[in-house]
Amino acid sequence: MPDGPARTRPRHSGRRPAIRGFAAKALSLCGILNHKAWMAGPHPPSREARRWPYAGIAAMTGRDGGADLHPIGNSPVVILVRPQLADNIGACARAMANGGLFHLRLVAPRDGWPQEKAWRNASGADRLLDAATVHDTVADAVADLHHVFATCPRPRHIVKPVLTARGAAAELRAITDRGLRAGLLFGPERAGLDNDDMAQANALVRYPLNPDFMSLNLAQAVMVMAYEWWAAADGTPPRALVTHESPVADKAALENFLVHLVDQLDACGFLRNLPKRPGMVRNLRHLFQRGEVTQQELRTLHGVVTELAIGRRRRGRLEPDDLEPQ
Q: Which CATH number does the domain housing residue 93 bear?
């Protein structure tokens, strides 16, 4: 676990998590949002229940103590330098968890640490905040790391390599795969990193965004790097067909359907124009060969063709030629 020399401050044990979103709706449906009436009722709750009266909802949502998050491999450390708002620290933890990052270090947070609002805004990424360490200086926060990248919207005439987020993620993967420890510096919300902060970095990271409007909040900046870090080693194909457990039909099954379809089109007279018939059949083949038809879809199409062939006269409308003269 790449945690350097730091003073670790425990989070307050008596903190009551805020109830928002789905949990609040669930509480309303359960009829227990009227907490005051419960506290004053004939059967007052226990001391533990007073501290956390929503344990049932937490167990239901899996958010009691946050999601079951752990470090994934030798992932980079995220270092927030002089963060100003606890809400943003919580949002950064949420972004980190989405990208498989776990280690969080705080350099001189403006309002001290811990802060309840951070957990309130982490949406279940509590364990990252529980494990976060506080440092007095950037030098202290990066002391045990081998490579540090600093995010910076403007290089400010500093002679250092400047990477995109994607390029930085690729280099971070190469660095950590060698067993070295790496970190990412993010500056304060208002002004970003200063020159002394960036002097601690091996390289700078600049996101290629709209040059006429490059404005990200702190959590968004962390999310971009977290995503690129995860995507750099993710094997998800860029495109996939979801068939809902119905396998894609092979060429033999597709040919069997096309034979059925052409046979019925011949029978109903649709292909009666013999000079055009070969081209019309080829067009039908192109239509069905263009995509990936599932076996279930072919079964449905077989049924459609059959019903069109025999069902119209039995249950549907009658064509003028079928009407007997009165």
A: 3.40.1280.10
Residue 244, token pair as written in the block: 């809902």
Structure tokens given for 17: 């998590």
How many residues belong to the chain?
326
Cβ neighbours of 114 (radius 10 Å)? 20
pLDDT tens-digit map of 19-64: 444 444 443 444 334 444 444 555 454 434 333 333 433 433 345 6
Q: Could you tell me if residue 19 is inside a domain?
A: no
pTM: 0.68
CB 109 within 8 A of CB 134: yes
d(CA 191, CA 209): 18
Q: Which uninterrupted H or E stretch holds 260?
A: helix 251-268
Higher-pLDDT residue of 20, 195: 195
- The set of residues, in sequence order, having a beta carbon less than 8 Å from that of 294 and lying 6+ positions away, is 243, 246, 247, 248, 249
- Amino acid, single-letter form, for residue 115: Q
Whether residues 216 and 258 share a domain: the answer is: no
Spell 15-25 as b/e; 16+ CB within 10 A means b.
Answer: eebebeeebee
Does a cis peptide bond (omega within 30 degrees of 0) precede residue 114? yes
